[in-house]
Amino acid sequence: MIPVKQATADFLAQHRIAVTGVSRAPKDHGANVVYKRLRERGYEVFPINPNADEVEGDRAFHDLKSVPDGVDGVVIATSPAHAEETMRECVDLGIDRVWMHRGPGAGSVSAEATRYGREHGVTVIDGGCPCMVGPTADTGHKIMHFLGVGHMPKQV
């Protein structure tokens, strides 16, 4: 186990990041918020949605294996029911950094996905949001992090 601060810094030091669960009808959908923030902050970010060819004005990919040249990390922002399937795809593709998004609600965290990823050498951040820390943070998300919204783990 490593401190979450180290894991989040390592995750956000990557350049190519996929976000699963990005919606075609965004509004304030958590995956879309994360996707747009990463894009705004200069990351090469790839929206993953099996039912969309475009989201947020960008080309979408139906799965992780469809992203040309792969990715360095994945933010899982789907329902927890889909998290283990995504984690298995990450392991199959050799992606060793995964962040399971969790905001004020149930989020995307799955104990089974966490266990599977860690058993296969993946650094799994099982809670919180990339918008809470580091170069992607904003004041609102920093306050949520301080208040414990999103259940950011202490170690991963």
Describe this structure as you would to a colleague.
With 156 residues, the chain is an alpha/beta fold. It has a single domain, classed as Rossmann fold (3-Layer(aba) Sandwich). The strands form two sheets. The chain has a five-stranded parallel β-sheet with strand order 2-1-5-6-7, sandwiched between helices. The chain has a two-stranded antiparallel sheet with strand order 3-4. The radius of gyration is 14 Å and the shape is globular. The mean pLDDT is 93. It holds the Pfam family CoA_binding_2. InterPro entries: CoA-bd, NAD(P)-bd_dom_sf. This is CoA-binding domain-containing protein.
CATH architecture designation: 3-Layer(aba) Sandwich
The profile of the biggest β sheet is: 5 strands, parallel
Average pLDDT metric: 93
CATH topology: Rossmann fold
Compute the CA-based radius of gyration: 14 Å
- Give the name of the CATH superfamily: NAD(P)-binding Rossmann-like Domain
Number of domain units: 1
End-to-end CA span: 5 Å
**Helical segment tally?**
5
Hey, roughly how much beta strand do the residues contain?
A: 15-25%
Question: Which class best fits the helix and strand makeup?
Answer: alpha/beta
Binned, the helix content reads 25-40%
CATH class: Alpha Beta
Uncertain residue segments: none
- Quick one: overall form? globular
Lateral arrangement of strands in the main beta sheet: 2-1-5-6-7
- Quantity of strands, as a count: 7
Oligomer: single chain
Helix-strand pattern, N to C?
Answer: HEHEEEEHEHEH
InterPro entries: CoA-bd, NAD(P)-bd_dom_sf
Protein name: CoA-binding domain-containing protein
Organism: Petropleomorpha daqingensis
Domain CoA-binding: 11-102
